[in-house]
């Protein structure tokens, strides 16, 4: 057993109050303020008597339980800190969403302020708009064809790459075969 600080039995109520306050989620500064208002800062010491051995054991148990409470409070504080970080990130996201909604509302307002129909537009602008829409459709069709052509080219390229690999393998085998034949002819000639 290590060092143990002995507290009078009256201090048990103080420790219990501290434990409850930590359990309620209070921080150390708040707990100190609460204790100052609830308990006197000094106590009257009457006499000191030797405590029996079993009393020391009860203080050790009290110290152990207090340490358990403190460790639980520390883990709770860590969880609270993590949750605060999550809440802060969520608040940032909410602020971004608010900004986006404001911009969206402004854009919708501007769209409503634009002339709605084509009755006020000159014929030349209507003709140009029609021509641009036709060109846009043609460009989309060409892009689609190019996409298909690109897919076909990729497929053909894969086939050619596999054929190239096969031809390289055949070349190595042919070189090996010819080298073996040359070596056999040299051996037969000597």
Protein architecture, described:
This protein is flat. It has four helices and no strands. The protein has two domains: 11-43 and 50-110, no CATH class; 137-190. It has helices spanning 11-23, 28-38, 53-113, 123-189. Helix 1 (11-23) packs parallel to helix 3. Helices cover 80% and strands 0% of the residues. With 190 residues, it is mainly alpha-helical. The N and C termini lie far apart (96 Å).
Poorly predicted regions are none
Q: What is the CA-atom radius of gyration, in angstroms?
A: 43 Å
Element pattern in H and E: HHHH
- Into which percent range does the helicity of residues fall? over 70%
Share in β-strands: under 5%
Distance between the termini: 96 Å
Overall mean pLDDT stands at 81
Number of domains: 2
Number of helices: 4
Coarse shape: flat
- Biggest pleated sheet: none
Layout of strands and helices, then pairs:
Layout: H1 11-23, H2 28-38, H3 53-113, H4 123-189
Helix pairs in contact: 1-3
In short:
The chain is an all-alpha fold and 190 residues long.
Write a concise keyword list for the protein shown above.
single chain; 190 residues; mainly alpha; 4 helices
